[in-house]
Write a structure and sequence with these properties.
By secondary structure, the protein is mainly α. It contains 14 helices and five strands. The protein folds into two domains: 249 residues, no CATH class; 34 residues. It has a three-stranded mixed sheet with strand order 3-4-5. It is elongated.
Length: 296
Amino acid sequence: MRPLNVRSSIDALSAPRLSNYHLYFNVVDDHDLYACYQWNNELSRAFLPCIHLLEVTLRNTYHRELSLYYSQTKVGKSKASFDWYNHMQLKGKSLNAIKDSLKKSKNPDQVISKQTFGFWTNLPDELSTPWDQVLSNVFPNMTRNWAKPQNIDWLYARMRLINDFRNRVAHWEPVWKLGPLIQETRPRHGVQPVSLKPPTSTPQESVDRLKMVHDRATSLLNGLNSDVYATYVDSCACEHLKWICSIEALDAYRNYERRTEMRLHDAKRKLTRLIQSKSVVTITHRGVAARLVPLQ
């Protein structure tokens, strides 16, 4: 999207909000600034399918496995939907979140649907549940020994990373602006996790770190459900993310010109070159427009 009046568009978006783009991307003019902003927006959108699948699959799997365990334990009959949260020692924000949901519905499926990603991140901190047994069923494709605290800590850190990133996407913050990469554990007995890498400082570092976030999210998805993972990896959504999360895609956005079009017969002759250029091209034929977008 190349605006008709770029200065008015930047003012509408808030120039101070875009100020951190200038040095980071070395922008040359307002059009270049707006292009970098649009690339960030498309990056955010491209991550949504992966985050959505992970969050929904995680929620439903936790709900099913905890329902099966607690229904068998409490009433002697396995149920795939059960009020397991009423039989746990939940505390603090987790307990309050359940209480708030119960005010609106007593149906376990409805209660669970209202819980945030952060709720599931902190859930294994609850002490009365045999998490070694439950997590083995929640993540059937992982070989970790969940009886070991360091593996629970790893899961917490991994999910905390995804949750923090999810919130950045949800609030349309610059997803390329990432803080220090922290060791996948959590504070224990006064020991703090080690910082493995400093905050990102160049577009290439941002791309590399974003690819890592995607890899970590999809590995969790694979641990939960290999079929859902395989379907996502095979999708156009995943292919599009792989392309948009690249320097080539950033360059394509920065080089894009408004209303650049090519007629179908010209595109046919230049198709190989267009594909190799990894550019976004609008192709027209008899009043119909289509867009050629690189996938990776």
